Automatic annotation (TrEMBL):
It comes from the Eukaryota. It comes from Aspergillus kawachii. Pfam families: Ank (PF00023). This is Uncharacterized protein.
Amino acid sequence: MLENNNNVEDLDVNQTNKDGSSGLFLAARGGHIMVVQKLLDLGANIDAPGFHAASDPSWHLFLCAQKGGILQSLQAALASDDNAVAELLLDAGVKLTTQQQFDDAIQTAAFKGNIPNFQRLMAGDVGDFAPDIRPDPLQIALAGGKMRRAKLLLQSCTDTNEEKGFFSNALAAAIASEKLSIVQLVLDAGANIKLRGRYGFSLRAAVIINNFEITKCLLEKGTDPNEEDHELGDALQAAASRGNIER
């Protein structure tokens, strides 16, 4: 449709659906980079908002997804882990308008270990904002599965169990990488499996990301499967919500 000049002439590229989501937002959320580029070429408002339901399971790990509500195309691209679309929007001059949008974007980039876009956000590419939580370079490397960088940063780390950063601790960040090798790296460095992170206790976090290898590893290391978490729920509740019989 967008390739047909006859259709494009009368097309309102900024119209929204019943939920208030623009075409650009939906294309960014879906990772359709060619559609995003075409809409921008046709004059789509790069800052047009979109709506995200808090119950959408595809973004269950991210802060912005947990809240639900009005988001922006860059947030959608970051939450969908589409680096190319996020880079395109940043190159096109996308700007965030509120501190909350920035906080959600910076945390989402950190959660995914999206270091290049994280650095651009921190450098002020989307506006003059500062993060509400000081990011920890080690946690960002761990969450992104950057083994070489994580090893380098661990060499100068004096306490792998220090509570700080977006994930609260190094083990929680490692689990978010969904890589057993990264989790094993921090465990070998002395990470405490009993610490509670952003997604609850370590076993619950592993179950939430649906990773059998990490779950098995933590159980073998002696983590308590019956550890109660009255705020987020325990590992069994997480497994039930994910439909996991094996775990």
